[in-house]
Amino acid sequence: MPVVDGRLAVVDALPDDPLLQPFTLKHLTLRNRVFSSSHEPAYSEDGMPKERYRLYHVEKAKGGIGMTMTAGSAVVAEDSPPAFGNLHAYDDAIVPWIRRMTDEIHEHGAACMIQLTHLGRRTGWAQDDWLPVVAPSPLREPAHRAVPKEAEDWDIDRIVGKYADAAERMQAGGMDGIEIESYGHLFDQFWSPLTNRRTDEYGGSFENRLRFGWRVLGGIRERVGPDFIVGIRMAVDETVPGGIDAETGLEIVSRLEADGLVDFVNVIRGYIATEPQLINVIPIHGMPSAPHLDFAGLVRSSTSLAVLHASKVDDVATARHAIREGKVDLVGMTRAHLADPHIVRKIVEGREAEIRPCVGATYCLDRIYEFGEALCIHNAATSREETMPHEIPRAPAARRVVVVGAGPAGLEAARVAGERGHDVVLLEAMPWAGGQVRLAARNPRRRDLLGIVEWRVGELARLGVDVRYDVLAEGGDVTALDPDVVIVATGGLPQLPEVDAGAERMVTSWDVLGGDVTPTGDVLFFDDNGTHSALSAAELIARSGARLEIVTPERMLGIDIGGMNHVPYARAFNETDTRITLNQRVLAVRPEQGRLCVEVGSDHSKHVAVRHVDWVVADHGTAASADLYFELKPLSTNRGAIDYAALLGGRPQSLVTNPDGRFQLFRIGDAVAGRNIHAAVYDALRLLKDL
Ligand SMILES: Cc1cc2nc3c(=O)[nH]c(=O)nc-3n(C[C@H](O)[C@H](O)[C@H](O)COP(=O)(O)O)c2cc1C
Ligand code: SF4
What is the pLDDT of residue 14? Predict the structure, then answer.
């Protein structure tokens, strides 16, 4: 159970803050109103919440959160193949893992619940036990693309029992309650006329469509007893013609309440069968803040059930507003806690300005499908709690550290070195910090990325780091500072693709994003990179009125961009009739009658086509900008070498290959090789935390 002392300590600190008021739900008193809604970060191992999973949630409990809701779609049956690393709630082996996690979360004063589900058609068949996907009707979900079998009577009976079994396991594991997922999964696939075309007693009329859900909840209640907390996370309004509308949704809520089946409703507004629909439920950067909060308030005004809600409440002011105005009882700050698990503690300690902001990049969610684990774009400690600290301990002795380059890698290096208590100087060639992040934020839709820079600049000021702008550092500038350690984080510069002829006639996506060129007329964009810099520049060109064709050698557009981030690009290219050419690459560019003649070929055949355009823009990633590093290398004790065994083992760097050297030298981020923001901050954190 949540620790009473911890709760009182929090409430006493700032008695007037609406966010810090306790909340009682049945037997459970939460120490404040902030929760993390269920989300599957795909940290499970063999379907179990082992070390990594547990530490991730425990960190939020340490950080003062009222309640952390675990899993996200923990699956109750084997024929709900885990689409994104879901926990196996159908397996008895999970109980001790759950018990260990709930015990530790409770020790740190937070409450803990879990979400249970059967994914129905929202998964694929080619994983785990390879059982066929099952749904009320054999209708394919566009996002996951499995063609489901229509659930038979024996499937329904079996799955109803599976829900109750799983709920009992979670109760045995010490959960404070459970939540049933009811948006886009089997449970509400029965409810919604969009997914239920049955003609038996589970389809057709409203009552028939509700029957499966009522059997599930009734079965759970019977098994766990009247005191255990059972909630529902439900699409109260699917917002799709022919689906559950708000009136119907509110009617369902009122029936659930009247029948005593649930204790809270966690409000969802929207539908998630396609990615464009999903980002309306889980908005990414460039979209409005808290778009469904007023709707959650409407639900709250029509029920006496406790109302929870999460959807892009990513800052404390909005969360506070949500509680103060009575929109919800508990406000979800889910991705916000991936970015900073210590939000509540910082509020309590009067350190709100130090909260690392969630910038809505949704790298976290996109990664569960792309690479099988959620990572925060600019917090490399999240989910690596075993090895990476959220709070950087001070070093035994202060050293003089010179960091060159104030892009994400250099900023993070200077921040971590400052937290270690070192004497830090940060040199930056430009009059501002940010490097490529600042360039990326030139797309107005991606402006929030600046939070990655601004938070660090604020932290550097707090830590007393000496930041010097307009210094294009050469070796002498660095050695004059008499450093013990030099970190070169000078980033990269755009490189042109290798073509047979005419590379010099191309401009780069940096030229476009930076505003140095404005391509007009017919524009061919050669995306030989597949990530944001390319599509973001292409988006600006498409929206500017130019006639755009994107040519890429890949088999899909934006191959390194996840599904949710893909949506605004696809929308821009769709609305501007941008031509997209896959599996092809630019071979040569030649001048011709004042325009450019472009030869376009393919890795797949010898066929060559020709385009006549006004501009060719290319993105071939960046080349390391490392002249300074190579200039300093002979002067360093380690000749720039990183002892990878020490780095990965969490030990300080102690290689000495040049005893005459004057300082240790390390190169991080894109100055090593072009990668991304997360790689840059991870490079910096894991090296500097042991310095
Ligand atoms: C990595 C990740 C996985 C998620 N998985 C689930 C899930 O399994 N079930 C669910 O109901 N919501 C899931 N969500 C949605 C979150 O619970 C939450 O609704 C969403 O992130 C919006 O809230 P926020 O803006 O506070 O982050 C997931 C979110 C993330 C970031
Ligand atoms: S990746 Fe972006 S959206 Fe996800 S938690 Fe980090 S900052 Fe927030």
Answer: 56
Residues 281-330 pLDDT 10s: 999 999 999 999 999 999 999 999 999 999 999 999 999 999 999 999 99
Over the stretch 36-46, which tens digit does the pLDDT of each residue have?
Answer: 999 999 999 99
Residue with tokens 């792309």: 370
Statement: residue 5 has pLDDT above 50: no
* Inter-residue contact 319 to 333 (CB < 8 Å): yes
- Averaged pLDDT score across all residues of the chain: 96
Chain length of the chain: 691
Structure tokens of 488? 């070169």
Nearest CA to ligand 2 atom 2: 361
To 5 degrees, how large is the angle CA 277–CA 373–CA 2? 90
Give the residue from 52, 164, 39, 41 showing the smallest Cα distance to 114.
Answer: 39
How are the residues of the chain apportioned to helix, strand and coil, as percentages rounded to the nearest 5?
A: 35, 20, 45
**Is the model's pLDDT at 370 over the cut of 90?**
no
Contact partners, residue 683, CB within 8 Å, separation at least 6: 409, 668, 669, 672
Start-to-end C-alpha separation, the chain: 39
Distance 204 CA to ligand 1 centre (A): 31
Give me the phi and psi of 165, to 5 degrees please: -60, -45
Ligand 1 test: best mutation among 282, 292, 367, most atoms within 8 Å of CB?
Answer: 282
| d(C-alpha 311, C-alpha 332), whole Å | 7
Quick check: 36 and 337 in contact, CB under 8 A? yes
Residue 23 DSSP SS3: strand
Q: Which of 313, 357, 377 is nearest to 454 (CA)?
A: 357
Query: Taking Cα atoms as reference points, which of 114, 374, 138 lies closest to residue 220?
Result: 114
Backbone torsions φ then ψ of 293, nearest 5 degrees: -65, -40
303 CA from centroid of ligand 1 (Å): 24
Residue with tokens 């699917």: 238
pLDDT of residue 10: 42
Closest to 380 (Cα-Cα) out of 452, 460, 458, 428 = 452
Mean pLDDT, range 498-503, rounded to an integer: 97
Pairing label, strands 507-508, 615-619: parallel
| Residue located nearest, by CA, to atom 8 of ligand 2 | 358
Whether the CB-CB separation of 625 and 673 falls below 8 Å is answered with no
Q: Which two tokens stand for residue 28?
A: 């459970």
Q: Is 38 in the pocket of ligand 2 (CB under 6 A)?
A: no
Confidence (pLDDT) at 194: 98
For 534, residues 6+ apart whose C-beta sits below 8 A from its C-beta are: 509, 525, 527, 558, 619
Ligand 1 closest atom vs CA 374: 1
CB 135 within 8 A of CB 147: no
